[in-house]
Amino acid sequence: MKENSSISQQEYLDSANSLSSAASKSLKDLLHSLSQEQIINQDLLLSLSFSLRSFTNLKRFLELIPLLVTQLLGVKGSLLIPFQDNGSLWREQLQMVPTDEDHELFRKLFLLEEGKKIGFGMKEKNILMLDHLVQRHFESSNVIATSIVSRGRQRGRLYAFDKKEIVFGSNIHRKHIQIVADLTGVAIENDVIFQVIRNHEKVDRQISIGAEIQSQLLPDQCPIIDGVELAACCRPAFQVGGDYYDFMPTRPDLTERAKSSGRWAFVIGDVMGKGVPAGLLMTMLRGMLRAEVLTGLPPDSILHDLNQLALEDLTQSHRFVTLFYSDYDPQSRKLRFANAAHNPPLLWSAKSRSINRLDAPGLLIGLQPEAEYGCGEIFLQPGDVLLYYTDGVTEAPGISGERFDENRLISFLDKFAREGLGAKQILHKLFERLDGFVGVSDHHLEDDASMVVLKVNQELTLPALT
């Protein structure tokens, strides 16, 4: 009896040990299985992260998303419905696996009129409508969904589905699908930023070309005119500016030698505004003005005709132009001028050693039809210095907020003219003082700034014979 009892107890212990060993093995197998699943999931997420870092084609990236969701969650299929940057349904980028499920649903999404509207994805009722549409299509399946969001904006909707008899939608499932949705949102946002950058690069290239063309329209050097020295510089606030100056022979058909002793037109102008629009208008005006110069008309008539020609274009652009036009005869040293509300040039007289403004009545170019312009004239004398400039010079703000203003410009012009400097030296020193006042080392100004300096050469005097 005791022997039988002993055997039964031993068998019991052996059986218990066997069960314990089997349970331990099952637990180890389960832990190993879970560990392997975690490794697979980590690899999948790492692959997605790598694709996000290195992708250059958003469409290819979005194609991966449903496939990744099915593998990560272990479900039958997944659907991605992205939105375009304007919020409309991005029908061309609909993605689903398995593909045999998509035809009827894609047709419904393509025909969805609401989805074509701007801002569709930004309204909660439309998100609910999409969810309802998907749920009806997969009525024999369990469906979970999450939003693709970046920077607070709806970028799409991501779905996972499986058979009803298979239970999924646990917290871990939702976390995984949300991770994928978040990475997808980053990818779509990055693509939007890339597109903006590409567009900016295109615009920058176009602006650079425009700036190059415009710089070629400004004189690359001053002409040689008997009895005077010229110096000029235009410094645009942006790559393309609205300031303009020019030197034009009234008889371009003459030889170079004859031109130097013939009549010349000097002009300086400024289109209201800055950048590309101003530059384009000034380019247009340049062509019109050069044609007018060939007529040989006096300055007031030229401004009158220019106003008539440019009125319609300027009215449509809601811009106006200030312009000072003058012509100079080297033989008589007579300067005739007319002004369309531009900053009056400053004339330093060598005889009186004082500065006066050259001005004449006249309205802005493009302000009203049949505008009339006055005409003035003056005879320049040896040693006289004439400064043409735009308001970007006098309106330039200093470090303290104070403007450079006309009085300061007059003071510096008087100082440098009294020192007997040449036109190039005066121009250089004026810009040097302007830069010092503004306090910038890269010569960047808020507005286009242009100056033209004309100095009449001193007459040579021979020593008296004794």
Characterise this structure.
It is a single chain. By secondary structure, the chain is α+β, with helices and mostly antiparallel strands. It has two domains: 28-194, Beta-Lactamase, CATH 3.30.450.40; 223-456, Phosphatase 2c, domain 1 (4-Layer Sandwich), CATH 3.60.40.10. The protein contains eleven helices and 14 strands. The protein has helices at 2-54, 58-73, 103-110, 124-137, 171-217, 256-261, 275-293, 299-317, 391-394, 406-418, 423-438; strands spanning 77-82, 95-97, 141-150, 153-163, 228-235, 243-249, 264-271, 321-329, 334-340, 346-349, 354-357, 376-379, 385-389, 449-456. Helix 1 runs antiparallel to helix 2 (58-73), helix 1 runs parallel beside helix 5 and helix 7 packs antiparallel against helix 8. The protein is elongated, with a radius of gyration of 40 Å.
Q: SSE layout and pairings?
A:
Layout: H1 2-54, H2 58-73, E1 77-82, E2 95-97, H3 103-110, H4 124-137, E3 141-150, E4 153-163, H5 171-217, E5 228-235, E6 243-249, H6 256-261, E7 264-271, H7 275-293, H8 299-317, E8 321-329, E9 334-340, E10 346-349, E11 354-357, E12 376-379, E13 385-389, H9 391-394, H10 406-418, H11 423-438, E14 449-456
Antiparallel strand pairs: 1-2, 1-4, 3-4, 5-14, 6-7, 7-8, 8-9, 9-12, 10-11, 10-13, 13-14
Helix pairs in contact: 1-2, 1-5, 2-5, 5-7, 7-8, 10-11
